[in-house]
Write a structure and sequence with these properties.
The chain has about 80 residues and is α+β, with helices and mostly antiparallel strands. The chain has a single domain (about 1-80), classed as 3-Layer(aba) Sandwich (Glutaredoxin), CATH 3.40.30. Helix content is about 35%, strand content about 30%. It has two helices and four strands. The protein has a four-stranded mixed beta sheet, with helices on one face. Helix 1 (about 10-30) packs parallel to helix 2. The longest helix has 17 residues, at about 10-30. It is globular. About 20% of the residues are buried.
């Protein structure tokens, strides 16, 4: 399973979700990637996803995505339910 966090710099909510995902990664052993969204002048702000934004993939297939707002307890419950046993 691969979990990707889309984030931006100086985002306290993003940092909280990142640390929760790092704790979950230790517990469940999934691959974790953090991707920073660059606020490029060529990108319209409305076209950028709200952060934090989390995607979960298994075997190269997206199985779910979580958009802002993400609650840490809900994130923990969702990740736990998606881990292969």
């Amino acid at each position: 399973m691969r979990v990707t966090l889309f984030t931006k710099h100086n985002c306290q909510l993003c940092d909280a979700i990142k640390y929760e995902l790092l704790d979950l990664q230790v517990e469940f052993g999934f691959d974790f990637t953090e991707t920073f969204l660059v606020e490029d002048t060529g990108v319209v702000q409305e076209e950028m996803p709200r952060v934090p934004y989390v995607t979960v993939e298994r075997d190269g297939q997206a199985i779910l995505s979580l958009d802002h707002p993400i609650e840490q307890t809900a994130l923990r419950r969702i990740i736990r339910s998606q881990v292969k046993t």
